[in-house]
Amino acid sequence: MVLCPILFSNGSSAIVSAMTSKFRFIRQSLPHARKGSAQALQVALYAALGCGIAQPACADDLAKTANATSNAPTALSTDKPNPDATPTDTPLVITAPPSPQPVDIAQVPAVEYSAQNFDKVINNGVPFPPSVEVNVPSYLTLSQAQAYLVQVSPKVAADNANIVSNALRADSTRNLNKPVVFIGATAAHAHVDVDIDTKDFKNDVRTDLGNLANPLPVPLPIPVPTPSDIGGLIDDSVPNNISRDVNRNLANANVTVLWSAYNGNRTQSVTDLLNGMTDESRADASLSLDEQYTTLAKRYFQTQLAIMAAYLRNQALHAIQETDHAAQRSLDVGLISRIDRLEAKKALADAEYENIKALNDAQLAMTALQRMLRTPYAVRPTSPLFVSTKPLPPLAYFQQQAKQHHPAFAKVAAKYQQAQALHAFSEANYRPTVTVFGRAQAGTADNWIAGVAANWKLWGGIDRDASRQSSLAKLHQAEFSQVDAADNIMLLVEKNWQSVKNAQQNYIALNTNIELASEMLRFRRLGFQEGVNTAVEVMQAEANLQKAKTEQAKAANDYVQALADLMQSCGTPLAFNQYMQSADIKLPAIYFEQRAS
Question: What is the C-alpha separation between 151 and 154, in angstroms, rounded?
């Protein structure tokens, strides 16, 4: 049996139940056995889910089918306009389950809806990034949802920005080993206005000359000036005050070259450290993206399960309503007691509550999927729940996949690369540095300087031995972290592998429950017609059948959830699509991807 939503020309919606090529279209959106507030709530919930009521096909309904199919449009009344939709006169068709395609970001259109919508109420000083216009359709396969996720997820965008930042920072150090050339220029104007008092200077000179007034031991044959004569010459030739006023323009240009000819491998260590940080950011981004892919798959199929559970609850409610109506007629003719009738009413009330609860759960699941894809409208999943009865590959295969692809190992390797770079930098403290320098003044060919400077730290500053031991400890930390990560990941893979196998066996085992519940319902209905069984027993059998179907759908969802966890623990979340495509059991889906052309 397969299910398909239909919108009629009068605006009401329904679900087509296809069984042995017989269809029955239910024009009303709700069962009409009960009125009031419960009915109004159901109307709103059915409108939100975009689905209605399906009844088993009957022979007398075949004539109605021909009239109803001519009015079947292509979308539900709650859907947003879809630019990819076919013309309105094209009916919905029931197709085979879609085959997921590889995620190709280039195929994602970007035209209509803004998926990167931000809450402008939040304002803590951080500006909002620019919005990205992405048209996310209302009907999505899982592979399509994965492709749109990388387009609209703010976490993916933030991780990518972090990778770009670290990569550019590492790239900025590529010229550290090359010469550095500086060009310098100076332009200045000097103004000096000063008065120099010479009185004290002249007095000091006179005093010193007076001390030389002692007669010479041998008279000279020429006249010798006396100190008073020399002092007079000083008074006459040296003014008491000297004034200077200087204005001068100064200009200078030079070229300086510095080259760290040998630095003990310090610059390469810095580059290696930054490259390791870039690799770590890539590994973190891969871990985050794998987690988002897994979360998307889980929410996607949880939504599919919730919608199916709501549909099955609605089927059970409709069957119980028919039985309740039959119980009322039996009471009217005196075939059952009033107690039996009240028990039937209670069973109907319980079924109505369970129906509304299932609709609420489906609406919540659709909202969670909608929030993750950041769309302003509900997302309807078209990839059905599935189970593969084929044997899983051996555990060693998945563990080998984890060793090759899990981002945690890439992160540990990046940490080890950083530790190696820090250790190399600490080792450089034991080596000398050699710098070649030169400087020339522009315009004057004779003014230049060139040389070599060598430095070797002998003692003082940072303790080199302690720094070296610290870097060695970082290396050991990375080595032990790799062993610990391998142990944890291998154990996680085995746990998830066992969970998939258990869910697979559980689904197969529940087939017997459905067969038993179906046969029990048939037996109770026959007994009710013969007066052997009560209406409550029939209602319980109907509820048990829908419960068995729901339990099997939950088992299929458990299989899907465990498989998603297994793929994430292997570091290959997109390999989930291959298992989905090759599954031999696909449950009925409410929404379908393709439409008739």
Answer: 9
Residue 558 token pair: 């458990």
Angle in degrees, CA 407, 411, 417, rounded to 5: 145
Same domain, 472 and 338: yes
pLDDT in tens, 532-560: 887 778 888 888 888 888 888 999 999 99
Residues 362 and 497 in one domain: yes
Q: What pairs with residue 454 in β-bridges?
A: 434
CB distance 412 to 328 below 8 Å: no
Quick one: DSSP state of residue 190? E
Between residues 493 and 510, which one has the greater pLDDT?
A: 493
User: Do 523 and 396 share a domain, yes or no?
Assistant: yes
The residue range of the domain holding 196 is 185-215+225-253
CA–CA distance, 20 with 525 (Å, rounded to integer): 22
* Same domain assignment for residues 197 and 308: no
Q: Where are the alpha helices (DSSP H) in 510-575?
A: 511-529, 535-569
Q: Which two tokens stand for residue 521?
A: 């319902």
In single-letter form, the type of residue at position 258 comes to L
Strands, sheet with 433-441, edge to edge from the N-terminal-most edge strand? 180-197, 241-262, 433-441, 448-455
- At residue 585, the 3 state secondary structure works out as strand
The encoded tokens of residue 239 equal: 């003014």
CA atoms 114, 116, 118, 124: torsion sign = negative
Beta bridge mates, 182: 256
Choose among 383, 580, 384, 390: nearest CA to 504.
Answer: 390
What pLDDT score was predicted for residue 571?
94
| Cβ 374 vs Cβ 152: under 8 Å | yes
Q: Which amino acid is at 334?
A: G
pLDDT tens digits for range 457-481: 887 777 778 888 888 898 888 889 8
CA-to-CA distance for 560 and 566, rounded, in angstroms?
A: 10
pLDDT at position 133, please? 67
Tokens in use for 467?
């720094």
Closest Cα to residue 573, out of 371, 284, 388, 297? 297
Question: Among candidates 542, 543, 524, 544, which has minimal Cα distance to 534?
Answer: 524
Per-residue b or e along 553-587, where b marks 16 or more CB atoms closer than 10 Å to that residue's CB: bbbbbbbbbbbbbbbbbbbbbbebbebbeebeebb
Q: What is the mean pLDDT of the chain?
A: 75
